[in-house]
Amino acid sequence: MKASYIFLSALFCLVLSLASCNTKEIKDEETPALTQRVKGDMAVYGLACDGCNDTVIVLLPETMGDPVTYNVFEAKRKGRVLGKIQIGDKLCVMLNKKDSTKADLVVDMNKLMGIWCYIVMPKLRDAANMSASMEEKMMDNMSDSLKAIYLIPREYGFYLKPDWQAQSVGYVDDNNSLADESPVVYPALGYFTGWHLWNGQLMIASGTPNFGKNGQIKITDARNDTCSIDYLDDDSLVLSSDGISRSYYKKDNINELNKKAKAIANKLKKEAISAAVNTSN
Fold this sequence. Notes:
Elements: H1 2-22, E1 44-48, E2 56-61, E3 68-71, H2 73-77, E4 81-82, E5 90-95, E6 103-108, H3 109-112, E7 114-120, E8 123-124, H4 132-141, H5 144-150, E9 154-160, E10 166-169, H6 177-181, E11 184-185, E12 191-198, E13 201-211, E14 217-232, E15 236-241, E16 244-251, H7 254-280
Parallel strand pairs: 4-6
Antiparallel strand pairs: 1-2, 1-5, 2-3, 5-6, 7-9, 7-16, 8-11, 9-10, 12-13, 13-14, 14-15, 15-16
């Protein structure tokens, strides 16, 4: 236990020293600093120590000092210990308001980081102006060849990075006239820029990207969206917001995912060009 504590203390000091070199004063809507702390966040943060089990967690707090033990028996029973905790993992802990020795929620931040995806399908462009029965009828009347061309599933998601930055998965800049020629449209995907936790909830920063000719990107309309973390393990994540839940699966290579998304978008552009030529003739 003593050796483990010394190792974790040294590791924590290293993390803090690195953070102090890169931290700057920020506003709430910007990418969070390495302190992980934003206004109104009452969570306790630290590193998991030897001794964590289904009944208790042992935490080396971010303020250093001695490891603190919290009872998580009820939280574990209710599925509120999110992620399989390993020694050295960064933890976010929400304490019981009546008993500070108990934790109501534990989030393993190391398990939360990574590439999380879900599948989306396109809808008919004018689906918003149709009844559900009319949309279904038009889909049924679409030939198999057209379905093969246009009804292509895409992977959306986000990449939560260790440095508190975030990146969209499957994002394609298709704001052009050719995209408007396609009979189908994919759901909008946010352009994610950062993330942090706020009282045990996941908060993701996003905005509208403006791509300059020199390759630089300027973000406008910055916003923060907060979701409850309902489930988390090594390869599954469930988030909910405003009564709507979404399940995610974990992937390893963001470059392949974005390459595939661009290939699908380019295919639809070619079909739009072909359709425009045939119409003019």
